[in-house]
Amino acid sequence: MQTTYFWIGLAVLLVVLDLWVINSLWRSDNTRGSKARWTAVVVLLPYVGAAIWAVAGPRGVTKGPSSPEHSKG
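== Phospholipase_D-nuclease N-terminal ==
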């Protein structure tokens, strides 16, 4: 029974990690083709793709909050 929870937890972690990587990837300033290739790598090779993206992927998020109100402290 506990082994089942372990695998469910691992699958949830994988989905959250992939969604985070894909969100960060599509918010970057790279070309659409580059984003599509990275998305394919991350989806087809989940953990390995995310690790490769973390080391060699696009850097920087260019699209921040949509209004200056979000930046007020």
